[in-house]
Specification:
The chain has about 190 residues and is an alpha/beta fold. It has 7 helices and 10 strands. InterPro entries: Class_I_gatase-like (IPR029062).
């Protein structure tokens, strides 16, 4: 297992204690290295031939830094290294795992693919970003409704997705869903 991140400036920096933006500037690779305890490489150096699969975590950083979904929605652009990494694994018929908001990356890069970001309606207030499913459909992809503890496998494209924090759920349910995604990716590898 190796961890990669793009060597780019973050779109913005948020003080999560106050839930407000700061004037500070940070680099995505440097911040990712902090989280990974330094064991990380520039995404530009990733070679799909050296790996059996790739998994992209989710989070607002994906929507702000790996693509511009947070600002542009379905009209977003995907970072060139993220897009080329996804395309390299897809071309090599190697599995791709995506959770939380990161399935929108596949929706932008692979028209016609199947993904899930949970439900397409805000069921019991648990899916406040349910409109993301409609945006995925507008991109020409199929959104598959799944519960937080489940994942969806697009067998034709070897793409495995789960909604994770796109659902307001207890952490153990989110953990279970991510676990099923990882298990399905490993089965396809």
């Amino acid at each position: 297992v190796k961890i990669f991140a793009p060597n780019i400036e973050q779109r913005d920096v948020v003080n999560h204690l106050k839930s407000s933006p700061t004037e500070e500037k940070r680099n995505v690779l440097v911040e990712s290295a902090r989280l990974a305890r330094g064991n990380i490489q520039d995404l530009a150096e990733l070679k799909a031939s050296e790996f059996d699969a790739v998994i992209f975590p989710g989070g607002f950083g994906v929507a702000k830094n790996l693509c511009s979904w947070a600002v542009d929605g379905k009209n977003c652009t995907v970072n060139e290294h993220v897009s080329s990494t996804l395309q390299a694994f897809h071309s090599a018929k190697k599995p791709i795992g995506l959770c939380c908001i990161s399935p929108v990356l596949a929706a932008k890069v692979f028209p016609g693919c199947e993904v899930t970001v949970g439900q397409d309606k805000n069921v019991d207030g648990r899916f406040p970003d349910a409109e993301t499913a409609s945006a995925i459909a507008e991109l020409g992809c199929k959104h598959i409704c799944k519960n937080v503890n489940e994942s969806h496998v697009d067998k034709a494209n070897k793409i495995v997705t789960t909604c994770a924090f796109m659902c307001k759920a207890p952490l153990h349910e989110i953990f279970d869903g991510i676990g099923t995604m990882v298990q399905e990716v490993l089965k396809l590898a």
